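Write out the 3D structure for:
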Amino acid sequence: MACPLINLLFFLLTFLTFSTLAQTSKNISLGSSLTAVKDDNPSWPSPSGEFAFGFREVAKNGFLLAIWFDEIPNKTIVWSANRDNLVPRGSKVELTVDGEFILNDATGKRIWYTQSAGSGVAYASMLDTGNFVLANRSSSNVWESFSYPTDTILPSQTLNQNGILYARYTAKNYSTGRFLLSLQLDGNLVLATTNFPQDTPNEAYWSVQNPNTGFRFIFNESGFMYVTSKNGSLLSTISSSMLSMKDFYQRATLEYNGVFRHYVYLKNTSSSSGRWHMDWSTSSYEPPNICMSILESRGGGACGFNGLCKLEDQGPTCQCPNGYSFIDPNDELRGCKPDFVPQSCGEGSREEADLFDIQELQNADYYGGDYADFREVSEDWCRQNCLDDCFCGVALFRTGQCVKKRLPFPNGRIHPNLTGKLLIKVGKRNPTVNPGGGANTEKKDHKTLIIFGSIILSGSGILNFLLPLITYLVVSRSYSRKAKVSQNHPVISGMNLKHFTYEELKNATNQFKEELGRGASAIVFKGVLASGNGKSVAVKSLDTRVGENDLEFKAEVSAIGRTNHRNLVQLLGFCYEGEHRILVYEFMSNGSLAGVLFGESMPNWYQRRQIALEIARGLLYLHEESSSQIIHCDIKPQNILLDDSLTARISDFGLAKLLRIDQTLTMTGIRGTKGYVAPEWFKRLPITAKVDIYSYGILLLEIIFCRKHFEAAAEDEGPMILADWAYDCYKQNKLHQLFKNNDEAMHDMKMVEKYVMIAIWCIQEDPLLRPNMKKVTLMLEGTVEVSAPPDPSSFISSIL
């Protein structure tokens, strides 16, 4: 009898849900509009007054066109039209006399619209369900907000197959975030990451399996959430709360931290005591512990690299281990950075070990990223072994096992069920670092001077005795250094890299036969390392006839060897033997961005947006987050490589210019590639990181339109300079003319225009007008508003 009773209950609940949908509404006539103002924004309420539609200010002079609960103190937002593109004061939403529903910013520029023109729209209405609709004269809905949810669904709302909720980015940032809830085409309801952290592939961390039959996810008015098949039969119950709509407000929200929660709010509650309460039941489908469920195979986990996730009463929280701090305090999911200079592996690394200590953390671990595993050892042995090992950043000790991990640490979590103890290596203090990477060199030199001064002051007799000894030591040390340089495997201080012999690389590349590409001063070959289990590598042989080749080699090794970021090509090792200067990189299977971007099968619009963002994040790391600021100086499609999953990796640091932490500009000769070179090179102005911003802007235009920055004259046309053409088309609202058979981007012209505006800001002739890479990244992510750019100047065409 149990199954018939359950089905009877289900159909009664379904009947109750849809029998209560009929309601009165206040029609909003054609020609009506609302304008965003600082305070007391006008709105369109639902008949009961429980919901309202209008503008909400969520950032300084940044407004959402939104729907919210209007009779509770905090005015909880449940839907927005422009979550990724806030509008300023003075922006206007209008239901035109033609039936179009359009949001324009204060300058009259269209930001969002419903694409309902020509559908016979007669009026709009804010319903008591929280659904905003456009209806025709027959009162049939032509468009409704319920069909385009953001991070929340409401009672009587459904998600069909391929319907998606996207979490907001942070608690206070409403733009599209890093987690999604989707009823997939395979019928399964899943929670997954959204190419984050570090733009990794989506990874599901919770699911309700309904293979090939799940058709609709329903949230009814009694708080009953369930999945049905196409014929309406019940497949899975997600939440079975039995609540009265008369007594409670309800919503189900995918939170910014990846947790999907059902909330209730008792109506008629005083403002002092009213708040949302989580009401989630049915133990089979409890919301997951995000900290333990998200174990990114290639990303940083729930709290980003080096972060630690802990489940508190109010949900998961992120924290940094002692000695580390958040990369961005306003965005804790980005991870943590060390507040000390990590130990180098160069000469003197053993002495550096005295500058580090171990911090303990119980019931915690970092899942993945192991490089050494020892059994039947003591905790003291594990602790000392990590301190002595320059690669070790943290060791996990549990019941005689010592597992060592290097920076950065993925998937950090704290939980009572974790029996291990983390031994985290941190700096006792922040030592002075010299350009060669050795820590505390200044202190050593100072100590040497004190000793030497003491000897001099101790008397002429001792001095006469020591002078021959000192002379001998100096000469011996000089000789030793020369001998070291002549060795096959010289040590380059501070480099955690493998030293290859020329013979090893000759064998790995089959006598340097398979050429991958060549530049002005180097040829790149494909190879397979004998010690790498068949792993392919890219072997870059520098031309020793080039005058500055040694300097370029040292710059590239120094720059890349100290970097560690997902969007940079990893340097695995080098050969510095005789006249041979060779670099060994990880192999990128999809070649350069140029080959993909301008080839026959270009990446789709979504992939191109991801590639643009990945390049920006790589440059942001070089400019602001690496230990030494690095200006790349040659950003172009040929220097962006793509791995198996089309993740963009910045390569070729041969022209990189390193700056000290306190240095902001430098003077140097012209570097880079024609067409991508910033104007200040030609004006012999000081060079800053803004030269990379300019090159990135040109590259971004190429990524958007899959066109080269310069195209030679056709028979009936003049030469095409992409930057000039893009700005002209932007001003004339004709950007679609730049596309070649790109329907996907053509249907997302609002985002295309935004990306073009970012590119135009980047290629401003005046470096002071260009944004820094941090702001560029935030604009691409939708966190920062993109304002209308000025004319970048005709100087662009004059330098080609």
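Residues 1-21+156-278 form a domain with the Agglutinin, subunit A fold (CATH 2.90.10.10).
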